[in-house]
Structure of MULE transposase domain-containing protein:
Amino acid sequence: MRQNLKRKATEESSPIDRIVEEAFHAINSQSQSNDLLIDMPAIATIKNTLQKQRPYCKTKQGESFLLYDGPLGGVRSLVFSSCNDMAYLSQHENWYDDGTFYTCPSIFYQMYSIHTYYDGISTPCIFALLTGKNEQIYTDLFTVVFKKMFQSRLPIRLRTITINFELAVNIYNVFTKNDPTVVVRGCLFHYGQSLFRKFVDLGLTTAYKNDENLRESFRSFAALSLLPFNHMLWGFIMFNSYSTCISRH
């Protein structure tokens, strides 16, 4: 009975609760159900055992989902993606990466994801549980991703990668050193968040809430990042002159 439950948990994608419920329903339908139930451990114990038994490395369609289990930056990390996800990602020129630091398992530092965007839909294709956010970890991660694509004979059409500003320097260094043809861009949304955190650090939170001119200056400064690189200096000079005029009034 127990071996049968373990086999189902390993081979099937049905929820553990359903597997256990079906097993107990089958026992209840047998003539000697009372004797069998007496010998069975508590339901909570069975569910806990089956949760540990299930590898969580396949999709509901039965595809392999565990892409890599090994060191990244010298420390064990896990990378998840299916063959279909990798093929879909490889077909697109623009990738979007993000790191989530608050919703990953406690033994890891972040859950890093790689997405692509097509026809108005953002699709996550790779998930990596990482132990840090240093340059070596990201170098090893992208080495694994590209190596897997090469092994699967997938084309790599990557041209631009848009990233969270918390990760910007290290990711920029990875591609500058290893593939300078890829353009690394920052995300405007995360850039605005980073600027506002600086406002908070400078003690300007109350002033920002009460002063419309300050809010407009904040938005204008954030918009400088949208200018072509060779117009940045001119834009900053104009912004500085505009801000000075506002402060005088």
Notes: The CA atoms of residues 61 and 86 lie 16 Å apart. The longest strand covers residues 121-130.
